[in-house]
Design goal:
The protein is mainly alpha-helical. The chain contains seven helices and three strands. This is Tyrosine-type recombinase/integrase.
Length: 170
């Protein structure tokens, strides 16, 4: 990502040509934009710079290998050598985690799709389908409504429904 692709004033990133050849604008959270502004000041970056916002050790662009190595070093510093599923951490795990956290926070799947740059919401849905924590949260929320004492039907409505259903008893 080049410095000119980061709009720190508005908190927007320009992602140029992802793996599918599409470009898009992605918003940053306020706290992420503030962190990036502080970083840019420390690094003496300007919006018009042709350099990379996160340069590699030689000042150039990160390669797949250098990105993988950097991420694995970060995980190692955090004391994580393997993930709970036994796999070694990958760069893509951070993207997957962000999508899952957005989903768990109640962000609409359409917004997550656009944030990730997916062409179809079906691709994005896999984050909901593969996450047991999301299912647990959904079940707890639906149960919590029933435990608040809110009655979905009054006694008269329940009685009418029961009488209606009795007509169709086999």
């Amino acid at each position: 990502m080049k410095c000119q692709d980061v709009d720190l004033a508005q908190g927007i990133l320009f992602i140029e040509k992802s793996k599918k050849g599409k470009s898009r604008f992605v918003p940053m959270s306020h706290s992420m934009a503030e962190t990036c502004r502080d970083y840019a000041k420390r690094m003496s970056f300007s919006a018009n710079s042709n350099g990379y916002f996160f340069p590699s050790s030689d000042g150039g662009k990160y390669t797949r290998h250098s990105a993988k190595s950097t991420i694995q070093n970060i995980y190692a510093k955090a004391g994580i050598s393997k993930l709970p599923n036994g796999r070694y951490p990958r760069v893509h795990d951070m993207r997957h985690s962000k999508a899952t956290h957005l989903l768990m926070s109640g962000v609409n799947l359409i917004y997550i799709r656009d944030f990730l740059g997916h062409a179809s919401v079906l691709t994005t849905e896999r984050y909901a389908k593969t996450n047991p924590e999301f299912m647990r949260k959904a079940i707890e929320e639906s149960t919590a409504d029933n435990m608040t004492g809110i009655k979905k039907y009054g006694m008269e409505q329940k009685k009418e429904l029961t009488e209606f259903l009795k007509q169709y008893r086999l």
